[in-house]
Amino acid sequence: MNKKYAIIGGGGHARSITSLFEKTNNIIGFFDDNKKKIVQNISNLGTITGINKSHLIELGITDLIIAFGENSLRRLMFHKLIKLSNFSPLIHPKSILSKNAIIKDGSVIFAGSVVNPFAIINENCIINTSVIVEHNVVVGSHTNISPAAVILGNTEIGENCFIGANATIRENIQIGDNSIIGMGAVVTKNIPNNCLVMGNPAKIIKNINPNYVVFR
Ligand SMILES: CC(C)(COP(=O)(O)OP(=O)(O)OC[C@H]1O[C@@H](n2cnc3c(N)ncnc32)[C@H](O)[C@@H]1OP(=O)(O)O)[C@@H](O)C(=O)NCCC(=O)NCCS
Fold it and tell me: Could you tell me the pTM of the whole model?
């Protein structure tokens, strides 16, 4: 059966996600609780709170994809909606994935990204434009990796992390759950859970809670 997607959320990240449908056109529309939201060229299908299984079937939607850049909201929506729909991974045709890489449900791989052999991208992650994920890297569920970040071989990134644009993570590094790596950081040492990290070489600036807001 051909997959037909709907996007959850009608903000800036939803607009980025529409770029993944430019060739396939297998998108039905988007849901957002704010009825005034507009995502260019795609239909507003109603509120997220109003979604139920029969409504999705009626609209011909087979899969949902969550378009919230903020991890806490993306994670909440994934847990709420996984009971109602499939969440097949969404892969831009201009990304390069090794046949030995694993991309799990709900994750999105944007244009120009490379995911090398034996890398594992767990559920509901964002691998944004032109990210390099090297061999044997493991990315935890709900983690968001921003444009042009480079994750070198054997590194493990925890769940619910945020990696800023153009950050570089050295090989064999472990980054704990809920940690945030600032844009441009160069991470050369292991990072524990719940840390905000910035700079070159990267330093821990402070401890944070798992719902730290990145986009202000
Ligand atoms: C790390 C980050 C989350 C911190 O955000 P924040 O908590 O709001 O911090 P602020 O912007 O208030 O900055 C606090 C201080 O850190 C500095 N700073 C912020 N980000 C920095 C970074 N990445 N590297 C070095 N210094 C940084 C600021 O200049 C400021 O310095 P000051 O106190 O001397 O004025 C944010 O700066 C960041 O890197 N966001 C990622 C952006 C991104 O990659 N977006 C991708 C969109 S697709």
Answer: 0.97
